TrEMBL record:
Pfam families: p450. Its main location: endoplasmic reticulum. One of its GO terms (cellular component) is endoplasmic reticulum membrane. Catalyzes the biosynthesis and metabolism of eicosanoids. Catalyzes the isomerization of prostaglandin H2 to prostacyclin (= prostaglandin I2), a potent mediator of vasodilation and inhibitor of platelet aggregation. Additionally, displays dehydratase activity, toward hydroperoxyeicosatetraenoates (HPETEs), especially toward (15S)-hydroperoxy-(5Z,8Z,11Z,13E)-eicosatetraenoate (15(S)-HPETE). Belongs to the cytochrome P450 family. GO terms for molecular function: heme binding; hydroperoxy icosatetraenoate dehydratase activity; iron ion binding; monooxygenase activity; oxidoreductase activity, acting on paired donors, with incorporation or reduction of molecular oxygen; prostaglandin-I synthase activity. Its cofactor is heme. It comes from Triplophysa tibetana. The keyword Cell membrane does not apply. It is found in: Endoplasmic reticulum membrane. This is Prostacyclin synthase.
């Protein structure tokens, strides 16, 4: 009996080893990892930045790794991203987006088309739409800061974690702006359920949540589906909001009420999941770098008299601080499905073959953002990194003596750039300026910047492990 089992196990092991994929001519270097099928899944999920840095040191700017039965080619030459990702016929964004929708949001949108979603978002979050959103964001922030229920309008010092302070306030203001009116109690509940859900998002995406976590995710999701009411709209109205036009599109596609609610949660995450954490990192870096805080404060005073649209054009110091913050903390992994055997050409002229059914990822966080050839001391927060001496924007970043086209890519690249980026920038700026003008903010004794939650590499803005303790007081 023992010998039969041992023989069987031996045979399975041999089969797994011999059926392992081998590198073929002109393919990127292949790294299967030690464990058959699982490959590098555990290391990848634990800290993608560390794992991919190790692979880059071993193989260079392009390599293929086995991750839970899937072969993923990772491209880390940022000069090639734009050209390579242009081929949308061979490298498709839809399939992977649908897979994540199913795994995270239990959502099935058979006709999902990222291109038309991006166009819809562009129409509403840029140009004239942006001016309206910016005004509305300003008013909603003021409303929250003065409403007695929000509890911020009181004299005397209060303590809080900076992450929770920034995320809750920005989330609520942006929710009122994009999703419309809600009473304060509901708004607070939506925020709290969203945070419970968002904390588990990386695990849901990887399918590594345990029973207890599945329960928490289901209960948060269920409550959010109840709370997020799809907006109604007159079918013939011309000026639909972004959300109204999205829901109308789902209805025309024949999606039922349940699917519409699930899709609302997806959109809640797309529009609210990144700006709050970004605002936290900006304010956190300012509080822990007094010279940067001083420079931003001086700039705010000098532009305070201008209307927001005009003001936003004259804030080079803040703009540099924001870029530097995003360089250090924006870490989306951009993923495409390889639809057919194809060949990609990199900026150094090398060509590589990709196999149908694999995935291709680019990771702007590692390259260009943390590339030591492009950014000296890349781990450090240097607030003037994106400023010239004459206070204009610095754009001349070099690699191997040649100017790089993009020194950071927090919004993605090419056609697929985040369509909400102008709104996100203006919301973060409005938020930071408002709290620096209206509050005294201080670090609590011994408070230091928390480290990064490494499981979130790949999912947009990073989040801290723990929080940064602050005290604040509304100025009279
Ligand atoms: C700091 C804040 C934000 C960051 C760093 C960020 C970053 C990104 C990135 C990297 C992508 C993916 C590009 C790709 O897959 O190629 C994306 C997509 C997108 N973002 Fe943002 N984003 C932010 C805030 C926002 C906001 C505030 C909105 C809207 C109000 C928004 C709306 C969208 C939409 C609609 C998409 C496209 C999703 C799709 O393809 O279906 N984003 N964003």
């Amino acid at each position: 009996m023992f010998w039969t089992a041992a023989l069987l196990l031996g045979l399975i092991a041999l089969l797994l080893v011999y059926s392992r994929r081998r590198r073929q001519r002109n393919e990127p270097p292949l790294d299967n990892g030690i464990i058959p099928w699982l490959g590098h899944a555990l290391e990848f999920g634990k800290d993608a930045a560390k794992f991919l840095t190790r692979m880059k040191q071993k193989h260079g700017d392009i390599f293929t790794v086995c991750v839970a039965g899937k072969y993923v080619t990772v491209l880390l030459d940022s000069n090639s991203y734009e050209t390579v990702l242009k081929d949308e016929d061979c490298l498709d964004a839809t399939g992977y987006a649908k897979l994540l929708m199913k795994k995270i949001f239990d959502l099935h949108l058979p006709n999902h088309n990222p291109k038309s979603e991006r166009n819809r978002a562009q129409k509403h979050f840029q140009g004239n739409g942006l001016t309206q959103l910016r005004n509305s964001m300003h008013n909603n922030l003021q409303l929250l800061l003065t409403s007695p229920e929000a509890g911020l309008n009181t004299a005397g010092w209060k303590k809080d974690g900076l992450f929770s302070f920034c995320y809750s306030l920005l989330f609520r203001a942006a929710y009122l702006t994009v999703f419309g009116e809600h009473n304060n109690a509901e708004l607070t509940e939506i925020y709290e359920e969203f945070r419970r859900f968002d904390k588990l998002l990386p695990k849901l995406a990887r399918g590594t949540q345990n029973k207890e976590e599945t329960k928490v995710a289901n209960s948060a999701q269920g409550r959010l589906w109840e709370l997020l009411t799809p907006p109604s709209a007159d079918r013939n109205a011309k000026d639909l909001s972004w959300l109204q036009s999205f829901i109308q599109h789902l209805q025309e596609d024949g999606m039922d009420a349940e699917t519409q609610r699930k899709a609302m949660l997806l959109q809640l995450w797309v529009t609210q999941g990144n700006a709050g954490p970004a605002a936290f990192w900006v304010v956190g870096f300012l509080l822990t770098h007094p010279e940067a805080l001083r420079a931003v404060r001086e700039e705010i005073i000098s532009v305070q008299h201008l209307a927001p649209e005009e003001r936003d054009k004259h804030t080079p110091v803040f703009d540099s601080v924001l870029k530097e913050t995003l360089r250090l903390t924006a870490a989306a992994l951009i993923t495409r499905e390889v639809m057919q055997d194809t060949k990609i050409s990199l900026s150094d002229g090398q060509e590589y073959r990709l196999r149908r059914g694999d995935r291709l990822c680019v990771f702007p966080f590692l390259s260009p953002q943390m590339d030591p050839q492009i950014h000296k001391q890349p781990e450090m927060f240097i607030f003037e990194r994106f400023l010239n001496e004459n206070s204009t924007e610095r754009k001349d970043f070099l690699k191997d003596g040649r100017r790089v086209k993009y020194s950071i890519m927090p919004w993605g690249t090419g056609e697929n750039k985040c369509p909400g980026r102008d709104f996100a920038i203006s919301a973060i700026k409005e938020f930071v300026f408002t709290i620096l003008i209206q509050f005294d903010l201080e670090l609590c004794e011994d408070a230091t910047m928390p480290s990064v939650d490494t499981s979130r590499y790949g999912f947009g803005m990073l989040q801290p492990r723990g929080d940064l303790e602050i005290r604040y007081r509304k100025r009279s």
